[in-house]
User: Fold these one by one.
Assistant:
Number 1:
Amino acid sequence: MKKNRPLACLLTAIAFVVILTNSCKKEEENKTLPILTTASVSNITQFTAMCGGNVSSDGNSKISACGVCWSMNPTPTINDNKTIDSFGVGHFSSLISGLMLNTTYYVRAYALNSGGTAYGNEVTFVTLPTVTTTAVTGITQTTATSGGNV
């Protein structure tokens, strides 16, 4: 009986490792990327805009950050410009700043969890141009002359 004790301990240890490994695999299999959408862009100025998104699922893993990312090129990622606005499921708003006037931008909402980074749909917008006007001249009772530059 004493000869079988080390073998029994070894078999118990192996069984424990197998159970633990399977448990970890199941936990990892249940984790998926978050599901989210990008909100429409609003309040666009020459240098700022408002956007945001909605995280509808955390992918069975805690959201570590979400916000929007943007670029002058399609398909922006978190390696481009980004905000960090929230840490959970639900709606969030983002102020995009540091933009250049009269420029097309591409923006997507993003959310991070232990499964990775997920992105919402891509939205485009154009910042406002600079507008100047000249003084009104040639004023009569029924007409006036003016001009401007965009």
Number 2:
Amino acid sequence: NQLPDPVRVAAIYALGSIGTAAVSPLINSLHGHGNADSVRSVRRDHYIHHGLGENALQLDDASYALSAIGKEAIPSLLDLLESGDEWARMNAAFALGEMDQQALAAVPALIQALEDPSHLIVRTAADALGTIGSPQAAKPLGALFQETRPEWEEEIARTWSPRDQIRVNAATALARLGPLAAAAEPELIEALDDQCGQVATYAVETLRRIGSPSALDAAFNHLNVERWDPSITSNNGF
């Protein structure tokens, strides 16, 4: 990561072009990079969203190269997702998601990763499931709206907790699924009342994309209640 950006990008795509022969060295490079200090740094300084793209996490160059290799890298990435350290598992989930529907075979493993002790991996796996685009992911993603774990309640910054970010990631993933998120319609309707406005906003959009009469009715009713007329002020109530 110390190389100039153009050289790094060229190296990533060169490794992607090499293909199968590059998989093992790239996987090995991810092992051991996630030492305790670096993961603590990720927790403290990165991956905090707030809807403004603040401090977006930059994952390992090896994960980009593995995603460029594609299907040949999937078995090794699945092994890494199951047995690697925290940093390696995050990068494995990310690389699989970057493959889009090439990685459909990885959906069950990514759904299992939603149970990972690390909220960083839960969020990365949710993103990957939304990008890959399988209806199998809808219900597990919807369940994240109501799930609570003690380790998700720690304040990261400005009252924003891991649970807040997980709900936002789940909502954006479901929005990317669009009509394929139909199985999560009940959870999305409940999410319209989420205390985080971003979650409710993405839930409305997903319900619109699902397009069933019940989904559209719920979205319309929510917007009808939440509508705001900018001409209404304290000096002009009507």
Number 3:
Amino acid sequence: HVLVTLHAISPEAMTSYSDRLTSLFAEGDAFREIWRGDGIALMDMKDGKPVLTTKVHFGYTDGISNPTIRGGPERYPPDHQQPCESWLFVLRDDAENYFVPEPRELGLNGSFAVFKMISTDVVGFEKYLQSNKEKIDPELLAAKMCGRWRNGVPLSLSPETDSPPGGIPLDQLNNFEYVNADGSGDPKGLRCPVGAHMRRINPRGQPVTGQGQPGGSNTTHRLIRRGLPYGPAYDPRQPYDGIERGLLGYFINSSIENQYEFVLSQWVNDAEFAGAVRLHPKSKDPIIGTQDPAESIFVIPQASGAPPIKITGFSSFIATKAAAYCFLPSVTAIKFIANLR
């Protein structure tokens, strides 16, 4: 099976090139297309005109935190984490925890990726936020569950408001730490709950499974994530329109077991991922975790000894519609394949 990803600058270009590819696939009965899915950046109105955004269907600004790759050509915004080694994402001979797959001409400089089609229960998510408004403001709850306000401002830098005085420049939205090397910071999650989505998938300096030192970088389990929403933007005035919404995306790494599967099993769906902090034994990632409403719980610590806010009874807000484990060959590997007889 071959999974082809086509990136285009407009819907018209997408249609044109998709038709061209379909025609090429049919030549000589080379390939038979069995599935197709289209994603497009969500639109928003600005000054009366539609503009592309980086939002996802739950309303959060996406794509703010990306791994810094040591020696990479990109210009990275400030980040407290240590740069990731390139072999975490590209199969190289200098890797510490795997061997390049054979034949070497095919494996070298390639990557592995998990492709997923994920549906998002936007109606259920918004309804659940409102159902707890007597306990906590719905927008604050959304921020606590994610770790950022929906506009991208992190709780670690602004725990009380999504519009701090003076604002936060875009290139500073990822410039923070949870726990410093001396143990200071926010180890108990008073600013950003330890069990929040963002803190689970990238715990930074929080001592967790796979990284037990305060201030550790947790880089060996990081992923490069690329994706686009599918379905139109959610309209709260017409919440029950029956249209499916979700995300099409890749999780790119050199070891699916040590990166993608580790994060999903150990950090997203395990209450013991932060051993130094006692989370409720049934707690999982509140946004992407696999939840049972009879047991689900998300605890929000409060300052000054006040009792924590306990949010319970929620179902899973996402569902995997399709998934595939893929190998992404390098350019030299594609040339090697093309010359096979």
Number 4:
Amino acid sequence: EVGRMLATAHTIALLGLVPHPVRVEMQSGRGTASFDVVGLPEATVRESRVRVRAALGQLGIALHSHSLVANLAPADLRKVGSCFDLAIAAATLAAVSAIEEEHLAGTVLLGELSLTGAIRPVRGVLPRLLGARASGFVRAIVARDNGAEAAAVAACEGLEVLVADDLADVVAH
């Protein structure tokens, strides 16, 4: 279908303390406003669409003419928690052409979004970032409140870590 855009961002799920890379594939098309999240998301992850829509609205990006589908791959891996928000938001920004998708390559995004676009810290940043590095990622964007924990991984593992207070900071990065 003409006008459909696909974009990908990356994050890390934790099952126990075992990190698993997750690809957020976002498809955007023109049409009735909708926002679906698929790929075995539990309730907190499904609610991410509400936080993402509100946070993007704070940046002046209205999604009322977009039909959006986020696929969290691999689909058979259970997705729990709010750490997927930032990657879903970044993939959405790329899918609606608000940022260039190539800037997301090699980058892991970890953070919960508030309705205002502020980025809240998430649990398990240390094992998530170790897993990201082991999976070949070179950069991570985390909430400022996770910055100290993330810096420990950066120092040992050679991972570039950027901290962000809000979604506008992520766009700037």
